[in-house]
Design a protein that fits this description.
The structure holds two protein chains of two kinds.
Chain A lengths: L2 H8 L1 H12 L2 E5 L6 H6 L2 E5 L20 H11 L8 E5 L3 H13 L5 E4 L10 H20 L5 H23 L10 H10 L5 H15 L10 E7 L5 H9 L2 E7 L4 H4 L9 H11 L13 H11 L4 E7 L3 H16 L4 E6 L5 H15 L6
Parallel strand pairs in A: 1-2, 1-3, 3-4, 5-6, 5-7, 7-8
Helix pairs in contact in A: 1-8, 4-5, 6-12, 7-9, 8-10, 10-15
Chain B lengths: L10 E4 L11 E7 L3 E8 L2 E9 L4 H13 L11 E5 L11 E2 L2 H13 L5 E5 L4 E6 L5 E6 L8 H11 L6 H5 L14 H13 L4 H23 L5 E4 L6 H11 L13 H15 L4 H9 L1
Parallel strand pairs in B: 2-5, 5-6, 7-10
Antiparallel strand pairs in B: 1-4, 2-3, 3-4, 7-8, 8-9
Helix pairs in contact in B: 2-8, 3-5, 6-7
The chains are: A alpha/beta, B alpha/beta.
Chain lengths: ~375, ~300
Amino acid sequence: MFSKFETWYRDRHDYAKSWKEKTGGKVFGCFCSYVPEEILVAADILPVRVLGNHQPQDVTEPHLFGMFCPFCRDVLAQGLKGRYEYLDGITIAQSCIHLRQAYNSWENHVPSSFTYYLPHPMSVQTPAAVPYLKKELDNFREAVEKFIGKELTTADLDRGIQVLNENRAAMHELYSYRKGSNPQVTGLEAMWVTVSSMWIDKEEHTAELKRVLAELDSRTVERETGARLMFVGSENDDTDFIRMVESVGATVVVDDHCTGTRYFWNETPIMDDRMEALSKRYVERPACPAKDHVARTRFPHILQLARDFDAQGVILIQQKFCDPHEADMVPLRSYLEENGLPCLFLEFDVTVPLGPFRIRTEAFLEMIGEEDLF
Amino acid sequence: MAKEYWRWKEYNWRDEKRDWRDGKVITGGVDVGSVSSQAVIMVDGEIYAFSNMRTGSNSPDSAVNAMNWALEETGISMDDFDFIVGTGYGRVNVPYADKAITEIACHARGGNYMYGPTVRTILDMGGQDCKAILCDERGKVTNFLMNDKCAAGTGRGMEVFADLLNVSIEEVGDLSLDVEEEPPPVSSTCVVFAKSEASQLLRDGWSRSRVLAAYCSAMAHRVFSLLERVGVQKDFAITGGIAKNTGVVSRLEKELGLTALQPRHDTQIAGALGAALFATTLVEKGKGRKKSQTAVTG
């Protein structure tokens, strides 16, 4: 049922190249989920999220500090090794310094006809955040217009917003199938869908997703649900890990990742001023911990997600050296445990040690369940 | 053949005062660890026999050998078991086990039996990993932490030091305490680096006691930091082979400001013991092998 998404997940570069060949369009690499893809879609540009490929590499050492996260390292390696050579441009919205350094090195060492660093407010909770970002989005829009050689009309922006919102609505519907007592969608399948949505033409992705959604009601689920888990933390697109977790007596029912719900959770509101609407959307979306201050709005949001999806426990996933998430982990763990959600903390690297993580996961499942043993 | 100083005592034991035929529930637990394997046979929830031996290169064979040795001269056959649980890193490769449970859960359960229901923190110091486990009065895990990424400060490292210094592994702990003044710990607990450092210390004229004291001290400090992260709660107990090493245990107790409980059994069998206890509980709850077979066949 989800085979197309699995193929898209696996053969991401093949898809982008064939899309380019078929449409003659341009493809931009996006370094963070805060990049306003609506503007790119409005300009008929295909936005693709730049992610790593989870393989050891030896090219980023001169570019990044040793204590920068493995994700930014893996991302930069893809550029230096030429795996995104089909890109016509790259852009980043400011979120964390690690990924920004990966972007800067890429910009310096991988030829590209368009590069754009989009300042994005770190203090999204101040009243100035929306007007500030609106101005920055205006600048970004102008740069994109200059690149494509024409101005974007309101109708263009409406199309971009509508295409993204439709995809987000479909993603919400997909996630709703994970709420039931016997979820009709596994965490692995949801990951294929969510992560692939970051580089597949959104309209094509939405159409395929709607086809799947139409079949889900009649889907017979034969696997045991086991313990219902939530994943929370840094960037995570590791299908090997989630497959392992779901093979030892658990189902991942929801997540808080920038490659998961944080990416699609809120829609762009309908407003007369489209650029202000976009600004509100990206300021008010579920926050990355890098931006979640002074108040920690993520904590109650994560708890609400866990409750809405009836999660019994949480696996806290942190990319090694990911400072924003690392700063949140201790208070977040206390907060979730005080609210009755046991947590397992795991530190991710470019590759994940599946054997040791399996022991930890199984022991965690025994800890939150297996009352029969006592 | 050169003496293998690392070789610890492999043995089996059975309760000669009891006749297993008088019992109702026969269960087994087998722990195939990275360095050692144990099998425990329980009769009506009490230890009847066990074995403790080195793990071979093949997990299923090690599981079979450990169980065969525990069964030796008991008269029990594999068909007599009501349920068997496998644990340890080779838990999924125990050919005769009815269920696999992690060694984390099994050490908590075995530690609870071995040390009593007051134990809340169990440190399992195994052959190639180390686990700090918090548990409740039933021996159910409430939190745990494992050493990450490398096996520094575990049993295999101690074996390497025993060989390097030509000191029997069983004498390492006491000898490490035979120093007038505690030396600074070796700077690395990585087995390979620590071994290089120890060689240099020997060349510098350090006594074997002093080198062992430096290594035991480093190992104690490493596991102390693991315990600190999980948060030690009283009572505190240690399982696994290193629990027998007085040099590590006494230094760890000093750092913690706590005295570890004294075990009633060989600390190396804690995992297999916990597995057998789980097997017993499952049988008591009607989930044993024989009862389910009866249910199936009517």
